Amino acid sequence: MPYKERDINKMYYTMGEVTEIFNVNASQIRFYEKEFDILQPKKNKKGNRLFTPEDIENLKIIFNLVDEKGFTLKGAKDYLKNNKGDVKENQKIIDSLEKLKGFLVNLAQEL
């Protein structure tokens, strides 16, 4: 039986890992945490923020609305409140399309 790699999913991401994922400063992540109620990272005894995969998905949604679609912070908050289910579904579609794009780019480079 061939070996099948497992997807390793982390339970928590540190602030440093999150800033690397989104290529932003920690101050911007902290600012979004204060502004958006859907971001609720855990804090350890030292006060370090620990982000769950759900927090990462919520940050993707926020960055998509603010940076790519051009929403203001107030507009993004209102949009999230009124369309929470649709926004999460749209983000899943965007993520799968980005994975497909990455695969196709790698395939084109190999040819």
Folded structure, characterized:
By secondary structure, the chain is mainly alpha-helical. Helix content is 64%, strand content 6%. It contains 5 helices and 3 strands; from the N terminus they run E-H-H-E-E-H-H-H. The chain has helices at residues 15-22, 26-35, 53-68, 73-82, 84-110, and strands at residues 13-14, 42-43, 49-51. Strands 1-3-2 form a 3-stranded antiparallel beta sheet. A hairpin with a 5-residue loop joins strand 2 (42-43) and strand 3. The protein is globular and about 50 Å long. The two termini are 30 Å apart. It holds the Pfam family MerR_1. Keywords: DNA-binding.
Entry keywords:
5 helices; single chain; 111 residues; mainly alpha; DNA-binding; 3 strands; three-stranded antiparallel β-sheet; MerR family transcriptional regulator; MerR-type_HTH_dom
Write the layout of secondary structure elements.
Blueprint: E1 13-14, H1 15-22, H2 26-35, E2 42-43, E3 49-51, H3 53-68, H4 73-82, H5 84-110
Antiparallel strand pairs: 1-3, 2-3
